[in-house]
Design a protein that fits this description.
219 residues; flat
């Protein structure tokens, strides 16, 4: 018997699949997001999706690209005045975009952008850095470090708060302090680690920006 390629569904296009996947992501999380579940939501057979995506990773790549596309489409952002401001505004925007989706940071992590849209912002970043006196290698390392900090921070943040206003069971800091009463500093640290993520993110990002300037001797 000859295997036949899945027939193209006339009512299905790539953008539909991605938009449906992003919507389902908030309902099921990344582990529950399957091609079968997406196909069911679109009222098609699962093989129809393979016209657009060979596997789940290809879909995740396109989902990450669409998340990025939506992030940079927001108008009205003030122009960056220097490399420090660039890192601050870009990573704040990235965190906000990732927090808009359940497991948003996990989708971004390890995904490959399709197309070259991201190169527009990358070029602006590298231009600001090199004009400020960084070498290209230093600029890449600085921008990558801040980016990886944001991805890692939001991954941990969403492990506790999958969506804004939602908190996983087991992260009651008062109960944690009670259980760790024999370790007083560690007990008190819980509220500093698992609460006030906005403040924690800003302090960590400021440390990175200050460290980059100190490391490369550029104020």
């Amino acid at each position: 018997m000859v295997n036949q390629r899945p027939q193209r569904s006339p009512k299905l296009d790539k953008r539909q699949v991605v938009e449906t996947a992003l919507r389902l992501l908030n309902e099921t999380g990344l582990d529950g997001l399957t091609l079968r579940a997406i196909a069911k939501e679109l009222d098609v057979q699962a093989p129809a999706l393979y016209w657009h995506f060979k596997n789940k990773q290809e879909l995740l790549d396109e989902m990450a690209t669409e998340m990025y596309r939506r992030m940079v489409e927001h108008p009205g952002r003030a122009p960056d005045t220097g490399w420090r401001e660039r890192l601050l505004t870009a990573n704040r925007a990235l965190r906000a975009a990732l927090l808009s989706y359940r497991d948003g940071a996990k989708v971004f992590s390890g995904s490959r952008f399709t197309g070259t849209l991201h190169a527009v912002e990358m070029e602006r970043t590298l231009t600001l850095f090199t004009e400020a006196g960084f070498t290209l290698a230093q600029a890449v390392r600085a921008a990558s470090t801040a980016y990886l900090y944001t991805i890692g921070f939001v991954t941990e943040e969403q492990g506790v708060q999958p969506l804004p206003g939602e908190r996983r069971e087991g992260y009651d800091t008062t109960e944690r302090a009670r259980r760790m009463a024999d370790f007083p500093l560690s007990a008190r640290a819980g509220a500093l680690i698992f609460e006030d993520y906005d403040r924690n993110f800003e302090e960590g990002l400021a440390m990175i920006v200050t460290g980059i300037g100190a490391r490369f001797g550029i104020g």
